Amino acid sequence: MLRLTAVGDIAFDAPPMGNPLDSIANMLRGGAVVFGNLETVLSDRQDAVPAEKHYVFRAPASYAAFLAGAGFDVVNLANNHILDFGPDCLLGTVAALEARGIAHIGAGRTCGEALAPAILERDGVRIGFLGFSSAGNVPPATGKGSVAVARDDPRTIIGNVRQLSREVDIVAVSLHWGIEGARWPLPEQQALARRIIDAGALLVLGHGPHVVQGIESYRGGQIVYSLGNCQIACRMEDSTSRGLVACFELRGDELRCVPEAIRLGPDYRPAPLTGAEREAFMQELAELSRRVGEGLRSGFVMEEIGWTYISGNLESWRVRVGRYGLRHFLQFCKWLVSPFVLRCTLGAARRGLRRLAGWSP
Which of 359, 337, 323, 358 is nearest to 56 (CA)? Predict the structure, then answer.
């Protein structure tokens, strides 16, 4: 029976004292194939200029050895941090991974490389991985034709899934998407994930919100809307300190998901969640999954995530405007009147009115 293991965001924010993934290495190695989202560049370049953002992530190129030591076979690079230090550091990340024999998806020198699948074979089963990132959180490549990041255009995704499904036994699609801190995916995310399964994929691996979202079984496939954090700076007091090690077992033509919970400690090193805390977390995951499986309505989701999105981004804009000045203030003004922000504002207002009505005598 083939087993595939997947985790969410990895940025190597832990202090440099051994491999920060050691405490979950045994959980990861339970899979014949291990996947994760690499939410950082791996580069030692001292002349690299950071992007004008609130957060930028970079770790030494030697940290690719930590991924190899923990058993990772393939990582996604299609995310909003792979260009934090420019195209040369993206290419340096690719080189560091390849030197350790780790496959990568979602970014490269050209669009063709960014869209190219990583194909692995285990026990006679061929598994193909594709990686994409939300266009809203991927900055444009610097320099004409310097590098490319695969964006989540539905037509491109569906076309590539259909083609790959003719070449392999299992298609797994990695998607960096969603609203940071939100416990629910958007209805349009759910629609896209289901289309991906309909097109021939068996597995959709979501990451980006930095919290765990529900898991949906759909037509023999599995959709994990967000795996949460694996190893990254987070707040110990909230949901960003927890994540999933999702184990998938292929039985006939269907994929079964067995999720396990991890918690990041004060040094941001993940370890298995145990005892009553694990039980509470798994019950919460079951409820999230139940609601997702029933289908998500836009009104409900916007009420749930509206203020989370607005408040998180207001802090980011405050930092960016303070650091970089007028140009970012003008970008903030444009963001403020964008259709999605207006949807979130209406959702947050409706939620507030419902609460006020509930508190009325």
Answer: 323
| Cα 187 from chain centre | 17
CA distance 233 to 214: 22
CA atoms within 13 A on the CB side of 115: 15
Say what the pTM is: 0.94
Q: What is the pLDDT of residues 280-295, one digit of tens each?
A: 999 999 999 999 999 9
Q: Is 3.40.50.300 the CATH number for 3-296?
A: no
265 Rama sector, left if φ>0, alpha if ψ -120 to 50, beta otherwise: beta
Inter-residue contact 200 to 165 (CB < 8 Å): yes
Helix axes 339-359, 298-324, angle to 10 degrees: 120
> What gap in Å lies between CA 211 and CA 220, rounded to an integer?
25
What pLDDT score does 360 carry?
43
98-107 residue pLDDT tens: 999 999 999 9
Alpha-carbon distance of 58 to 52, in angstroms, equals 14
User: What is the CB neighbour count within 10 angstroms for residue 100?
Assistant: 17
Q: Which two tokens stand for residue 328?
A: 């970012």
Residue 128 belongs to what H/E stretch? strand 125-133
Rg (CA), the chain: 20
> Is residue 218 within 8 Å of residue 235, measured between CB atoms?
no
Cα–Cα–Cα angle for 313, 317, 319, rounded to 5 degrees: 120
Segment 163-188 mean pLDDT: 96
